[in-house]
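Re: weekly structure request thread

Next one in the queue (316 aa):
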Amino acid sequence: MNRMNRFVISLSFLISSLVITSSFQFHKQIEKTTFHEVGGNEMRLESDTKFSTFHSPSNCTQKRQAVRTFVNRWKRTYKTESFHFTVIDPVTGCTINFKSGFAGNYPMASTVKFDIAVRILQLVEMKKLRYSLVKSDLSKMMRQSDNESAQRLWEIMGGRHGFDLFAKASGLKSTHHGVTWGSALTNSADQGILLTKVFSKKGSLLNLTHQKDLRWLMTHVERTQTWGAGKMSARPLWTTGVKNGWYLTKPGDFGIVNRWRINTLGAIWDADSNPRLIFTGYSNTWRTDTDGKSAWTELAKKSAEIFLKMDLPLAG
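Done, posted below.
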């Protein structure tokens, strides 16, 4: 075999390896994409990370542009200037990380219960905790957003110190404790990364059994709590799961007094339990809880329509 043939074979092997592994690597570099105000209602897209050709679909740019156009109208409709949301397609790697107004991190409210649930299930996997002892509290916390259950599990995972250790080990660089579990701070990109890592079938933060347990809890929340990401449309036999958070800011809290923290995180899974779309959204300046819930519901539904309709038809 001559030198040229050996070079061609080596190059072919390298390209094949990149194609195989790229789909599992995109969550390690969630694209930092931000829309900044530049005057009026116009925005511009800035990105300091480019998708490789291996996990950037040809229509990803069109999807981003469609979301950008929709958000310009969405902002005017709901009169909001400060928010952060992230949309991730785990299949292609197409991602939007969208910020407006406030550039810092947001109080999590009850979306922190997703993080708590992940850590508790990790402790069960590590045989440091019996599932039977926490099963009831996990169900109440995730399905009913029960605060007493959340407090018990928060203490089991180690409170503020345990939460910070979990965030660091999970690669969440902008997530850390607050005075209480509900005032822990994060941003939508961190929670998008966490959802991606938790429900990945390769290198996940949870084994498949506990992924299934957590997915079931998220897809069976009380009907009154299925707004936001829980309203993303999916195909027949697909499922949508959610964990939301809402809280009226009081004197002494982080943020503007008498404004609502309305946050949402969720995912769509296909019939084989593969995650197909992830949406997270954070803001703490809503004038009413109805405004915030309606706004996130509309944006999550539209994002799912934009991201999925170019790949597979949606139902309903």
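The first strand starts at residue 33 and ends at 37. The chain has nine helices and nine strands.
Next request, please.
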